[in-house]
Each structure stands twice: as C-alpha cells, then as structure tokens.
C-alpha cells in the first residue's frame, strides 16, 4: 500500500511538471528543429493550406512529396516550391556560404486519391522506391459535402468520412512501420475545431474530424506505449480558416469582429511552429482551448445557451444555403 501511495505521489509530481512545462512553452519559445534534407509527404497539397505547408517546409530545405487528386493544382504547388528552392540557392551563392550546398532539395508530385486505400498504398510504395523513406507525414487533405444531413446523398457522406478520417489510417499504415524501425518521424493530423466541438448542419464533417482526432490520440498513446520517443505527433485544430471551404459561415455579427475567420497564412504559421517544436497539439486561436474545456465540464443545455448567444448554433446555415443555391444553378445550366 505504501508503494502504491509513493507511486501515486510521483505521478502527481509528473502531472504538475507536465502542466508547468506546457505553460512555459507559451512564455518561452522552444528552439525549432531542422527538417533540412528530410522527406515530407503532404496530402491535399494542391489546396490552399497544403500549398502553404509546402512553401514553409521548402523554405526549410525539406524534400517535398506532394499528393493531390488534382494534378494541375498539385503541379502549381510544385512550381512554387521549385521557385523557393531557386531563391535559396541564389541566396546561398550570393552569401558565399557553403551551408546547404551539399544537399539540393527536390519536389516530387503524385496524383493520389487518399479516399481510396489502394491508391494510397500504391503511391506510398512509389514514394519509397523513387524518393526514399518518409520522415514527416502531413495528413492535410479534407473535403466537405455542404448539405444538411437529410439532404446529403449517402455517397457524399461516405466520401467525407473516407477522406477526412479513414485516409489517415491508410497513410499512417503505409509510412509508420519504417518510422518505428528507425525510431524517427513526425505525423501531423490537420483536423479542425469542429472535431473538438460541433455545430448544426455539418454532421458528416464533424463526425469525420472527431474520428481523425480520436485516431490521432489513440495512435499517440500507442507510440508512447511502444517507447519510441523519436516519433513525434502533432494535432492541428484551427477555428474556421478563410480558404473558401466554408464560405458564407457566419456567427453573430456583434461577435464576429472578435472571432473572424483565420487567415490561412496565420493558421499554417502557428501549425509550423508547433510541428517544428514537437508540440503535441495546437489550437488556433487559443480561445479554442477554453471552449473545448468548457464543453467538457458544462451540461449540454448550457453549451446550447452559449452557442445561441454567439450565433454558433446555426452558423453553418448560410454556408449550406449558398452551396444549395450554387448546386441548383449548376443543374439549371446543365438542363437537369
């Protein structure tokens, strides 16, 4: 009994230290690690967030492996990355420094539908064969159906779940074994605040992001249990990002100036800081931490009252109405 009490005391001290260390990270910025020369896979690289992640990793001389279902947008991202590499080479030559001259980073593009596991596994094998083993996996690809539940075709619900959640299983199964063997790697899950707390009208999207977060947290525990301290995990949960995915979403107009949609550049900058300092989780803005905490301790009806005050209970309805109108207009144009 005495041994159990002593062990419990040690656990309390470890918890206190963990809380203190987390608080210190907010006050003292940890040193960022180098990813120069490391192979970084980014899914959904043709989208706005994926493109920004690619630019940030390129500036740090990582070798980029870009996955997207759209070859055109993916190649556009690749060309931006190549331009960054050229600028870095020019700067290095101009300064007369030999830093980075031994390694010339490259960018590779692959058309991959992460919603199809065969496509993921086949593309992953090509990456290992043509590029090498992967050091960083950025699970960024995501979709939204934009329909109320009872109006949403089953196929779109399935697509949302597969791309936003199931794909994380497949990409991780493709690249994690070598990370475990080498005890080195970093897996990033780009989720959403809607995976921590939900709202009306986007049931499939919320469910998919809740699933992605559950997968990420369970995998984090599994890696900890395996004592592979060289493998890092980072969960990214931003508030509404102004990429157009949820165009039209509105909270209460009096509150909106204090909680506007996030600029994509700011969102990715915060995420990169978390990734490069091995931060386990980052919520942007920081008020998301508080909202998630309150959701965990308050009764559901209290949450409903808060949602109604903020205008968050039906914030997605204007977005859904716009998507429905756009779909109807397209059908009219096509004579459907």
How is this structure best described in words?
By secondary structure, this protein is an alpha/beta fold. The chain is 54% helix and 11% strand. The protein contains 10 helices and 7 strands. Strands 3-2-1-4-5-6-7 form a 7-stranded parallel beta sheet, with helices on both faces. Strand 5, helix 6 and strand 6 form a beta-alpha-beta unit. Helix 2 packs across helix 7 and helix 4 packs parallel to helix 5. The model has no long low-confidence stretch (mean pLDDT 91).
Short description:
The chain is α/β, with parallel strands linked by helices and 336 residues long. It contains ten helices and seven strands. The protein has helices at 2-27, 48-59, 71-95, 117-130, 154-182, 203-225, 264-276, 287-297, 300-310, 317-333, and strands at 39-43, 63-68, 107-111, 136-139, 185-190, 231-238, 281-284.
Instruction: Give the DSSP E fraction (strand runs of 2 or more residues).
Output: 5-15%
Query: Can you count the helices?
Result: 10
User: How is the main sheet built?
Assistant: 7 strands, parallel
User: What is the number of E strands?
Assistant: 7
Morphology call: globular
Q: Share of helix among residues?
A: 40-55%
Distance between the termini: 75 Å
Q: Structural class, please?
A: alpha/beta
User: What's the Cα radius of gyration?
Assistant: 22 Å
Low-confidence stretches: none
Placed side by side, the strands forming the largest sheet appear as: 3-2-1-4-5-6-7
H/E element order: HEHEHEHEHEHEHEHHH
């Amino acid at each position: 009994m005495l041994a159990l009490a002593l062990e419990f005391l040690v656990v309390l001290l470890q918890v206190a230290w963990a809380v203190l260390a987390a608080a210190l990270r907010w006050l003292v910025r940890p040193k960022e690690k180098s990813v120069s020369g490391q192979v970084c896979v980014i899914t959904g690289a043709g989208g706005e967030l994926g493109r920004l992640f690619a630019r940030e990793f390129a500036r740090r001389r990582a070798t980029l492996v870009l996955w997207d279902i759209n070859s055109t947008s993916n190649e556009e991202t690749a060309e931006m990355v190549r331009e960054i590499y050229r600028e870095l080479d020019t700067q290095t030559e101009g300064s007369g420094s030999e830093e980075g001259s031994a390694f010339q980073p490259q960018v590779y593009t692959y058309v991959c539908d992460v919603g199809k596991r065969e496509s993921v596994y086949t593309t992953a094998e090509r990456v290992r064969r043509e590029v090498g083993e992967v050091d960083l996996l950025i699970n960024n690809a995501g979709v939204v159906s934009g329909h109320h539940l009872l109006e949403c075709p089953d196929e779109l619900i399935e697509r949302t779940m597969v791309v936003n959640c199931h794909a994380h299983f497949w990409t991780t199964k493709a690249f994690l074994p070598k990370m475990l063997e080498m005890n080195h790697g970093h897996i990033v899950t780009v989720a959403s605040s809607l995976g921590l707390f939900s709202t009306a009208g986007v049931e499939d999207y919320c469910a998919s992001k809740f699933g992605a977060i559950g997968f990420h947290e369970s995998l984090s525990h599994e890696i900890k249990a395996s004592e592979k301290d060289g493998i890092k995990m980072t969960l990214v949960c931003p508030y509404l990002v102004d990429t157009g995915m949820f165009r039209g979403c509105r909270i209460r107009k009096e509150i909106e100036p204090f909680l506007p949609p996030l600029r994509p550049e700011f969102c990715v900058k915060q995420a990169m800081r978390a990734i490069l300092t091995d931060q386990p989780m980052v919520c942007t803005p920081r008020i998301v931490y508080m909202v998630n905490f309150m959701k965990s301790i308050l009764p559901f009806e209290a949450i409903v009252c808060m949602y109604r005050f903020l205008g968050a209970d039906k914030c997605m309805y204007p977005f859904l109405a716009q998507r429905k109108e756009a779909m109807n207009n397209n059908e009219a144009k096509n004579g459907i």
